[in-house]
Every structure is written in C-alpha cells, then in structure tokens.
Amino acid sequence: MVWEAKDLLSRMCVASPLAHDGLVYAMSEMGLFVVLDAATGKLVYKQQFRQSQAGGRPSLSLAGGHVFLS
C-alpha cells in the first residue's frame, strides 16, 4: 500500500472511487466530492454538493475524459 486516506475516505465511500490519469475521485452520500493525487493521497480538490433530504447513493463514471456524478 502506498498511502491511506482513512480520515477522509472512511466517511465517503458509498460507491467505488474512480481512478483516472493519476487522480482518484470519490463522493459521499452526503454530497462531498474529492479528488486525490493517486501517487501521494494528497487532496487536490474538494466540493460540497447540495443533496436532497431523501439522500442518495452517488455513482461516478468516466466518458470522453470527463467525470460524471449522478
């Protein structure tokens, strides 16, 4: 194992993280989206998305070089 992101990802993973071009993308059911450097585990980007009161189970997908969140 190269690195762990227990503090961040333990609250995240409902869906499997997505790895692409040296980055790891993950999203929580509470709407927190993060991008981590795959080599170091360092946080590259994070954004909180608004979620409905019903909650949800986000899924990440990749198409045409773009990451889609559903």
Characteristic key phrases:
70 residues, 4-stranded antiparallel β-sheet, two-stranded antiparallel sheet, 1 helix, Thrombin, subunit H, mainly beta
What's the topology here?
Elements: H1 6-9, E1 18-20, E2 23-27, E3 32-37, E4 43-48, E5 60-63, E6 66-69
Antiparallel strand pairs: 1-2, 2-3, 3-4, 5-6
Explain this structure.
The protein contains 1 helix and 6 strands, in the order αββββββ. With 70 residues, the chain is mainly beta. The model has no long low-confidence stretch (mean pLDDT 79). The chain is globular, with a radius of gyration of 12 Å. It has one domain: Beta Barrel (Thrombin, subunit H), CATH 2.40.10.
Average pLDDT, rounded to a whole number, is 79
Tally of individual helices: 1
Annotated CATH topology: Thrombin, subunit H
Cα(first) to Cα(last) distance is: 29 Å
CATH class: Mainly Beta
How many discrete structural domains? 1
Q: What best-fitting shape do the alpha-carbon axes yield? A: globular
Tell me the radius of gyration.
Answer: 12 Å
Identify low-pLDDT runs: none
The major beta sheet can be summarized as: 4 strands, antiparallel
Kindly name the structural category: mainly beta
Helix coverage percent: under 10%
What is the N-to-C succession of helices and strands? HEEEEEE
- The count of DSSP E runs of length 2 or more, i.e. the number of strands, is 6
Can you tell me the CATH architecture?
A: Beta Barrel
